[in-house]
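Everyone, study these two lines:
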Amino acid sequence: MDRTIYRLSRSATRQITTIYELRLIADASHLFEEPGKLDEVAQAAAAWFLQHLAAPETEIPLTQP
């Protein structure tokens, strides 16, 4: 783990005023150059977006049929 990047990331989270998740990717450098690590980041980000930003099923359509 890159402790400097971790400390900077933790410091940045103190300024976030909404839901967030700081996740550590095991055995990854801060640039995610290791095989498969950037894919792990992408999958975690996609899951977060789907959980927190997905439109509710009861959303009113923008256009009328």
In short: The first helix runs from residue 3 to 13. The chain has a mean pLDDT of 86. Residues 3-52 form one domain.
